[in-house]
Recover the amino acids of this structure.
């Protein structure tokens, strides 16, 4: 009788295997990130993308170009606009020349995909460091193909791939400092595909939020050629109906200048490879009047637009760019055109 009573008391007191303290802290980290995302208002930032390439791992990365875009995070969507433009568009509508690790990425959703999803399987992996000095708690994760939403572009195809990664957590604040992902490339035409996101506190409206600050995408093909995009966000602020960038709307129809024409322009914006970027606004004046069916553009008309492409010339300076331009006509009207400007002097 006493033996049965003792066994009953022992079974009642036993609560089964207890989770490790590190995994209990992980639950706190994920809950904090969930609260952060739920409170986060729509916001917009200036996005700067530096695109680089190299032929082998032994070579230095060569900067191909820099891109400036305005990005708005609205709910679960990312939309883009050229700096100063009032028209936000989906990523696919922003035409960027190939370079680096591709065009413009969509990486704002990683926080939800990894940290607010049931797909990853997490394990504690000891300590980690960020920037060589910030020590934290490391957690590894893996997402199998059946649960993955990670797509990698291969030619004209978008392939869903499994992936693994790690993130580093500040043990004091429980803020995530860095998130790293690696695609499993067994069935891809790549030797490696990886992404790294660094996080930081940013004031949006009247509160601080944990947001991505920078993102690095590196893609290496089977011949060892690497393309790399390093993206940073700055000047972030709350996105509201009365912001400088209104809610995306359909563009009004504008008259089009005929294709294949030549306009004599005098640039008013200095363009250099070191300081100019794709997306930067440019302006020029028409040096000779232009007339076509239904369109008359007087001498001195303002031509404005944004750089669509810029490349290094023989001596490292910008030798040409493409731009989508808007011309102000003599009666206050506008027309649009695609233009290419070629110059041989270094003051382009």
């Amino acid at each position: 009788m006493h033996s049965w009573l003792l066994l009953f008391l022992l079974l009642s007191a036993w609560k089964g295997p207890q989770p490790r303290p590190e995994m209990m802290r992980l639950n706190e980290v994920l809950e904090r990130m969930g609260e952060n995302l739920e409170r986060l208002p729509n916001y917009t930032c200036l996005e700067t993308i530096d695109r680089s390439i190299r032929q082998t791992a032994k070579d230095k990365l060569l900067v191909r170009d820099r891109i400036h875009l305005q990005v708005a995070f609205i709910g679960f969507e990312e939309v883009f606009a050229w700096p100063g433009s009032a028209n936000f568009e989906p990523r696919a509508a922003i035409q960027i020349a190939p370079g680096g690790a591709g065009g413009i990425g969509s990486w704002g959703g990683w926080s939800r995909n990894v940290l607010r999803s049931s797909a990853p399987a997490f394990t504690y992996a000891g300590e980690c460091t960020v920037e060589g000095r910030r020590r934290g708690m490391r957690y590894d994760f893996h997402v199998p193909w059946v649960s993955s939403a990670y797509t990698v572009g291969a030619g004209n195809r978008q392939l869903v791939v499994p992936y693994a990664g790690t993130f580093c957590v500040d043990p004091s604040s429980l803020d995530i400092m860095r998130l790293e992902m690696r695609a499993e490339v067994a069935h891809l035409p790549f030797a490696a595909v990886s992404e790294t996101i660094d996080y930081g506190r940013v004031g949006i409206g009247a509160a601080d939020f944990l947001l991505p600050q920078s993102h690095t995408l590196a893609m290496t093909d089977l011949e060892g050629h690497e393309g790399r995009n390093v993206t940073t966000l700055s000047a972030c602020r709350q996105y509201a109906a009365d912001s400088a960038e209104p809610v995306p709307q359909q563009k009004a129809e504008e008259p089009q200048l005929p294709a294949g024409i030549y306009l004599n322009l005098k640039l008013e914006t200095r363009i250099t490879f070191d300081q100019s970027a794709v997306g930067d606004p440019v302006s020029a004046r028409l040096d000779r009047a232009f007339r076509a069916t239904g369109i008359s553009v007087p001498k001195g008309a303002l031509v404005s637009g944004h750089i669509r492409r810029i490349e290094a010339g023989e001596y490292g300076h910008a030798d040409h760019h493409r731009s989508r331009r808007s011309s102000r006509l003599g009666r206050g009207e506008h027309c649009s055109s695609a233009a290419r400007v070629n110059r041989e002097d270094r003051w382009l």
Notes: The helical segments are 2-13, 21-39, 110-115.
